[in-house]
Specification:
2 copies of one chain form a homodimer. Chain A has about 400 residues and is of the alpha/beta class. Chain A is built from 14 helices and 17 strands. Chains A and B meet through helix 1, helix 2, strand 2, helix 3 and helix 7 of A and helix 1, helix 2, strand 2, helix 3 and strand 13 of B.
Chain lengths: ~400, ~400
């Protein structure tokens, strides 16, 4: 089943607007064992859209569009599909009534231009929109294209999501029938090319699965897709010994979820003290619902004075060891752990750039993990711009912490 | 000149990965007065890519690709274009030397798989990559497609951006001829529709400029484009009185840059205490180089115990007023200000969801700004998912702080 997504709107091409709709749709499709083979963003140009709609009807079984259902002159998704397929548009009584209700609830009457939103191509089905004024369209087997389904949804994310959940996903779930199954393994602390070489033999042994390796600044993902769940179980069993302690998690979770889960199953807690990463590690953890089960809090100690005021470190000692040093990282980790009474404390200092900071070159990073059996330290020298250095540092800290939790060192 | 962008990588279709490269490229093109007519994201499937490359060579003058230049088996952008165009790949000596240097600087030797990255199609030109191992390709007038330019860049944003700036943009600027000038005004605390209505008359008076309004979760941008810089100066002068204190900045800077700049010009400092936003406000500020001039640090006090341990708040009092309350936000702001000896303290508490927290519904947010003239408070009730609520809250806090700095209330 080949599915493509078409995001319509000039703003998606020329500006800072990210097409987040298609990302969200991709995730929801993945949960059904489906996926896009292509995503396109295109402006409000009749000629471009007509060409794209024609191509899409020739190559895809399901075409999901977002946008172009609004009331203004530059909204014409429905009109254009109807024109290309030689179908008339007729007013749908319920869509008109929904729109009148929508405005009445806000003590307004619809502007005249809005009534075109209640028009639906003959042969297609309207999809109700109770949080906005533009109904969607489900068009199955449109003229000349048996087997094709065109699904038109609004571009406003809230309206699109609600329509998807209520009307589109249930229908696609039925179609998905025999689903594609996915095995997702998250690995940290290993470069992509190393992982590629290390896993080649095992991937070849499981060559009937579709393999992908995805590297980001924070982790590497190994993805396998296949139609028989037993193949994925076998692949997982073959990979686990190859990946060993570098395997962070299997399934949906990422490095930060895995760390929180490891803490939670052990009834352990975490506190952080961040200098160079300035709150990014804390914010990655608190982005996860329920983080407070294990994450107690942290100090963003961007200045020497803050290290003293929030964590009680000795200013003379800090000046002696330097605020970008192994000793400082250990001091931060131990103070965070002690102040908040946590099982684990993470301390981070370094220089994210762009300029050198005293003696510390750009990219110098020190990470310390203070735990029940003492303090572990790692020094790194990272390349990249400020944002990349900060983000990679949080990933290195999470991975170091994960290894300390899962494979605790003998006490000393 | 029709330009299209093709982002290559299965991760762009199925996961949480946003294609930010094409957004960045769209902005850079706009600065040259150019724009995409289409953007496509497509997986690492040979068949899909081959079809798309063929279509693109038939309809576009310039094809920008990102991704698929890496060393692994699922990277084959160059190979596929070469195959479709009937060109051989040959090793480029300088690209090979650059790669060896890149690894040598890191005390490593390249894995064998990496050497394929130095292969370039005959007739095309390599684009140097000094921050990664994959050179890009500039292919002008490829066989059978006179007038077409294929530009292949790496998918890693840092490598792509550097290559664009050094090698691609200068060539496209020559093609673009006359430059377009842009006026960018950032506004906060005002919904997009309000801004649309409020500025309509002025925009119409300056109707020879191209106007766009862009709303994100954190700010609204007003963009004007025109060929004569004097027109933009006049438009700016006309807008300033209309926008008044809602105008955050003019030019490249965003809300957080503007806040840091306002603090710095006054020699003032800032400390934050974040409960619900869990470090996100601190991390948005410390993402900016030189933030430490004004930002001292903060406490991520995700639990009651952390509010006590890091900020010295009274646990009995916290339990009495509740940790999602106006009083708690004020207490956080005042404690942060006092502990760190800052001019300003920001306190944030609330419930970002997904579940209700005690009596606090999802989206309940309290923000306090403690300053030299006392404490200002704002309560909000936000819609959206956890990430949206956290992000919008940091923007509301920054804007409230900005107004307090720029228009200080009479002391009380």
């Amino acid at each position: 089943m080949r599915i493509e997504c078409i995001a319509i709107g000039t703003e998606l091409l020329t500006t800072r607007r990210l097409d987040t709709n298609s990302v969200w749709l991709g995730e929801r499709l993945a949960a059904l064992g489906l996926g896009f083979h292509r995503k396109t963003a295109v402006g409000d140009s009749r000629e471009d859209l007509a060409a794209l709609f024609r191509e899409a009807m020739g190559r895809s079984d399901i075409i999901l569009t977002t946008g172009g259902l609004g009331p203004t002159f530059d909204d014409f998704t429905k009109e254009l599909f109807a024109e290309l397929l030689g179908a008339d548009l007729v007013e749908d009584a319920r869509s008109r009534a929904d729109m009148l209700d929508f405005y009445a609830a806000r003590n307004r009457t619809p502007p005249q231009v809005n009534f075109k939103q209640a028009l639906i191509p003959v042969g297609a089905e309207p999809l109700r929109n109770l949080v906005g004024t533009a109904p969607g369209v489900w068009w199955q087997d449109p003229p000349g294209h048996p087997g094709v389904r065109i699904v038109m949804m609004p571009g406003v994310p809230r309206e699109m999501k609600r329509m998807w959940e209520e009307h589109v996903e249930p229908r696609l779930a039925v179609l998905a029938g025999e689903a594609v199954h996915t095995l997702r393994m998250v690995v940290a602390g290993v470069p992509e090319s190393n992982l590629d070489e290390r896993t080649r033999a095992v991937r070849e042994q499981h060559g009937h699965l579709d393999w992908t390796i995805l590297a980001s600044l924070t982790q590497v993902e190994l993805l396998a897709r296949g139609s028989d769940p037993a193949d994925l179980v076998a692949a997982r069993a073959a990979f686990e010994p190859v990946l060993g302690p570098d395997l962070v998690s299997v399934g949906d979770s990422n490095l930060e979820d895995a760390v929180l889960a490891e803490l939670q199953t052990r009834g352990q807690t975490l506190a952080v003290a961040e200098s160079m990463t300035g709150g990014l590690l804390a914010s990655r953890l608190t982005a996860i619902p329920g983080a407070s089960c294990a994450f107690l809090g942290g100090a963003t100690v961007y200045t020497l004075a803050a290290k003293v005021a929030l964590l009680g470190l000795d200013p003379a000692w800090l000046q002696e060891v330097g605020t970008v040093s192994e000793a400082c990282a250990s001091g931060l980790a131990e103070a965070a752990r002690q102040r908040l009474g946590a099982t684990w404390g993470v301390g981070i200092c370094g220089n994210a750039g762009p300029g050198a900071e005293g003696e510390a070159p750009v990219g110098a990073v020190f990470i310390a993990i203070a735990g029940p059996a003492g303090t572990t330290l790692k020094a790194h020298r990272l390349a990249g711009d400020r944002a990349e250095i900060q983000l990679r540092t949080t990933a290195l800290a999470l991975d170091l912490l994960r290894r300390a939790i899962v494979h605790p060192a003998p006490s000393r």
